[in-house]
Amino acid sequence: AFLPTRRCRMSRRVEGTDEGGGVFLGEAPNIEARPINIQNMLDYLHHKIVKRRFLSELLTYYLFLALFLVVFFTGRPLYTTFYVHNGLDQLFLQEEFSNNDTHIKKTYWDVGQIDEYFQWIRGPVTRGLFPNTKDPDSTSSTSVGNVAAVLNSNYVIGMIRFRQLRVQSGKGCSRDPRFDDAELLGDRCYAPYESTNKARDPFPEDAPLWYYTTSNPSQVDWGMVGYFYDAGGYVVDVEYDADAWAETIESLEGNGWVDEGTRALFMSAFFFNGNVNLMTQFESLVEFAAGGILIPTVELRSFRPEVYLTSVNYFVLFTEFLFVLFVMYYTYQVFKGMKEARNKTGVYLTYLNSVWNLLELINLILFWIVILMHIIYLGDQDRHTDIVAGTFEKKYYSEFEWLALLYEAEQNLAAFNLLLCFMKVFKYLQMNERMHLPWKTLSRVAPDICAYLIFFFIVFIGFALMGYVVFGRDMWQFRHFVQSFSTCFQMILGSFDYDALSDVNRFMAPIFFGALMILVYFILINMFLAIINEGYMFVKEEQPQVPTLFESMGKFLRRLWKKMLNTFQEYFTANEVHQFVKYSMLITRIQENPDWKGKEQVRHEEFATFLQDEVHVPREQRIQIIEGAQRFEMALQAVGLH
After folding, report:
1. What is the signed CA dihedral for 318, 323, 324, 327, rounded to 10 degrees?
2. What is the DSSP string of 135-173?
3. How far apart are CA 542 and CA 536, in angstroms?
4. Is the pLDDT of residue 524 over 90?
């Protein structure tokens, strides 16, 4: 932390002998003719060393942050990816079913039964993939040779894959054995999907189209019901041809592709947009819930199959190299800090007592993970170069899932690290007391906040469990505890539908909603704000009057400009350039001076002579050192530390 300074508005002539027999300090308006406290002078010089080091670290970190922003945003086509994803979303997910299939408006998100799933396949998906088969004048699809483009720019790569995951009959079920003898049920029982009851045997024995493939352990799909699905299962690869597509869909629907044992249906296709060098995976997932209803979700993942193609890409490669050097530098600084902490306390982990050091360690660990993932991603591209060329023949399915997942995971980790990097900026804003005020406030109220959060979450978890029990049977928003917790949190932020709660349970809805609003929204949240406000007012009263951030910046810029002008003038007028002494060397010379052993104070004339004769400090810097030390001592007195 940097103590505030306050100028002494006075004008005194401090007498002494200077080079040539004159006044050694001359007219020094901010210097008092009083003894110099040696310990305060050492503290002041150490303070200057820390401040200069802090400024150097600040400039270095800002350069590193700018480099990270260039690497992150220049190397990832976020802006163009949005339009590719939005186009596919409008084409396949927002497009309505054919009027021949349904008498009401439905889209993919309204799929709830297996018949509606095939209506979506025959309608929006077929029209999106093969628009020219229905409308010869359509311009939403073009073709170059045997390579077709969706929305004129997105070329279908390889075959299109249908995949399903099934469970074995009678395995994992728990019910009264008497139902096994019932004529209605028999031994038919299909439990929710788990890896232990996953079906692997062929079905039926003479399956005409599909086959079973083993899963890739590195590929996992995230669902709403089963949560995790592996990449194996029963597979049908369809060639990108309108006639073959229609024949396959008809065969799947008519030959029992979906039955009671089905738990998840996937449809996956890859599109390449050569305009922006972007490969996109479209993967729809329809899950079969225990009640028989279908729950649709979708994933759109994009990545660049080739990263370094243009001059801009090679510039990004150069910045990535510099970025890695910066990460190595900061890693070295962390190990150096841990070693210093061990030398002082005997334990490496005392380095992590500082929140900023802990934040930096987490930041660096994530950086190294991202760098490793990027190296693996580049290596996978080389292995998939022949696949990119071969898929234009459309004779097999493109296995790009791992590459898409790796690119997405790398981007997510880098995005979280970006947040941590901007949080770390506040470490360097401590130079200004006003900017440091929020962190001092949080440090002061941290014990009270921890106690408050324990009380808050005890009450809040109770409401989440109550909502899950009361409304979870009928409302999607409360279907399990985690979702109920999220819904309650949204309710205290003002997003709620009381009518829906009342429709489910007219008796419990007002009790639940009223208690949640009064106890959590009106009482607990206001208690939280009161704790923060009390801590802020206390810290504000402790803080003396300091310049504003803009005043401090203006002062710094004026001082920097003055130094630049002085240096420029001295260079061209052949004047003696000031040889500014290093503060660390000056501290050593003061501590080693035998005449000052055991003394608390020395006369300011004696100290000025020491600076001139023993250390050879230029006159201007002698004035700055003595003036700064006196201001530093006054600042200590102002905050009660002297």
Report:
1. 170
2. -TT--SEEEETTEEEETTTEEEEEEEEEEEEEB-TTSS-
3. 10
4. yes
Closest CA to 107 of 122, 94, 91: 94
Strand pairing partners for 237?
A: 161
Contact 378, 303 (CB under 8 A): no
In whole angstroms, give the CA distance from residue 552 to residue 554: 5
Using CA atoms, how far apart are residues 72 and 88, in angstroms rounded to an integer?
25
Distance CA 460, CA 452 (A): 12
Q: Using CA atoms, how far apart are residues 461 and 467, in angstroms rounded to an integer? A: 10
Ranking 31-45, 46-60, 419-433 by mean pLDDT, the lowest is 31-45
In angstroms, the CA 97 to CA 120 distance is 6
| pTM greater than 0.90 (yes/no) | no
Check whether 560 has a pLDDT greater than 90: no
CB atoms within 10 A of CB 168: 17
Q: Which residues are within 8 A (CB) of 492 and not within 5 positions of it... i.e. 6 or more apart?
A: 516, 517, 520, 521, 525
CB 369 within 8 A of CB 347: no
Within 8 A by CB and 6+ apart from 501, the residues are 471, 475, 509, 512, 513
Cα–Cα dist 592/609, whole Å: 16
Place of tokens 């429709």: 503
H-type helices in 384-472, by residue range?
Answer: 385-390, 401-428, 433-471
Specify the 3-state DSSP secondary structure of 167. Answer: strand
